[in-house]
Design brief:
Largest sheet: 8 strands, mixed
Strand content: 5-15%
Low-confidence stretches: 78-86, 269-276, 485-497, 558-589, 637-647
Shape: globular
Number of strands: 18
Helix content: 40-55%
Structural class: alpha/beta
Amino acid sequence: MQSKRYVLCGNASAKGVSEDPAHDLRLRLSGKEGKGNITLRIEDVHRKMFQPVPTRFNDLLEVATYVYSADQVIRRGADDVDSFGDGWRRDLHFVVPVRDPDFWNRSQVQEALCSTLGFLSDDQYRFDFVKLDQDHPFQDYLGFDDTQQMYRKPEQVVMFSGGLDSLAGTIDEVLNQKRRVVLVTHKATSKLNKRYQTLEQLLAEKADGNAPPRISVRVHKTKDLNHEYTQRSRSFLYVSIGATIAKMLGLNSVRFYENGVISLNLPVCAQVVGGRATRTTHPRVMKGFQDIVSLVAGESFTVENPYIWKTKADVVKVITDAGCQDLIKHSMTCTHTWEMTNQHTHCGGCSQCIDRRFAVLAANADQHDPVEHYKFDVFTQSRDAQDKKKNVEKVMAAAYLERANQVKNLADVTQFVSSYPDVGRVFRFLSSDTGQAAQRVFDLYKRHANEVMGALDDLLSRHSKGIRERTLPGDCLLRTAYESGSTISMSSVVSVEKHPENFFRLRGGGWEARFQGRDWVRILGVDKGAEYINLLLAHPERETSVYEIVCGHALGFGGSANSGLEHDDIEEGFQVTTGAPLSDAGVVVDRKALAQYQARFQLLTTEKAEAEEDGDHQRVEEIDVEMAQIFEAITGGTAKGGKLRKAGDKRKNVRDAFRNAVNRAIKQIEKYDKPLAAHLKASIKHGNEVVYRPETSITWDVRPIVNT
């Protein structure tokens, strides 16, 4: 993580807050003709439509503008994989003047803001809200256009980006359901103005008197403030604008339209992890937005995504089934808008472009999405292997295909959850029944995988001659898919190894460590303890259940499939305590049973997080018992001497054996690096929850080195 950056907003004082004035960022927001370095404008507003804006919504809009602007000003680390771990995540401390600081400093509001934004952009946030000394009337942000006539009162606010998903949602609302909606657009660049106008005009022609009015919002910054392109916090600004417009209209909801595969956004490859995989409409983010706006409104406010169970091909079919296929070519999907030209409206290589190409093929609508609009044809063109950015995109396209291929071959939801354990984190935000949510997510990804593979088969058939005669480039996606049968043969991003000051990592088949820039040491014969230490160092200050770590490692999450504590290790701990009895576990656990245990473990992890959040300590206790039972079952059913094992509550033994494994590893380290051993002894705290908590913050590189 980067060092802390203070963002001082408006006229907020730096006294008693700033640690390094030369390192601070000062942002000032102005309305019509202000002198700030940020200008917020809400355009095309009709005076007769709106009710007065509550004070807290005025604050919300300004807070979101400051967050979005800081996101663009403060650079992340370099794009290369070596450095993104430390440099990607930022530590941002905002000091924001507001009209109602008592409200904004409430713990509930702070928690909703920081947790939602932290997950959304993969950064760390802190806010200090102070009293605004000079008010800015909301009218200053409005640009009225009373030439447009408002026929009827709108029923819904729809967030309209101009992409295929929001276009389909608008068509669904206006043409299929005949609803009166207002579209809200955030204009990130003037390059898109003409395309928005074209879509607006075509929608009006098809709407038969129900043309949706569109309100556009732009945030203009001085040139010296445009540095960072990722803009992960954009959707917070977007929803704040939409919610404010809805409140002005007397409505209590906004709708995003985004297909579920993009919303859930399982990482397709190592280059797209954490905040690099966009979380704009992730269910956790949507729930966070809803909580924030409801607190601001003082009443229930809904932020929803009606397309959460649709694939992008489903979305395209909504457009074509409504007879609006001629609008597809005018829609805007590409994330690299800065590369856009009149001739090439899409780059062709980003994840959104790849997904779009497969979707229109799967929906039999590719004739309405001209390939010449793409700067690069990911299917048939070659990439320059010396261009790191293009090489990353090539790997990403191949990994996208491989994930679809893997999901297509999965038999059931158990295998899906075992193969993609990250998906378990989303279930609680989709349904009160985690089993039902898991099945629906699996069905969604399975359908998407079949669509992608079907589109690929169609492409291979179309280009069979070029593939057979090898007139297509050897590294284009179609030849790679046809000839290799796997993305494993795809070249990885080549990078020169760097040696950070502190690392504790797996290299090949062994462990190595370095502390405070000294010579690094090899750690031999204590692999289990080293794995546990590695996990703790990866998540400083995070208190984690010992049972989750041990059971997770035994199931193959976060370590090798054979890691974890053996039964003999547990029996060396203290006497087994009494607890809920288990039936005999048996001697052998087959693959099907292991997969079932993996799926159950994922669901238990999600349920435990919910129980902890709800303060349900009894349920937490029950889950810990079941985790210990799962571990008991997967590590064998027989005791020493072949006696049939009947397991009791193994939790205390697991805790003690975990501590023993860690201590053995530290004792081994002490032979070669006493300061590191002393640091680990002092910083790792044991109990039901184990945590690495150093006195001073230390950044550790814990990623494995696999290419040795």
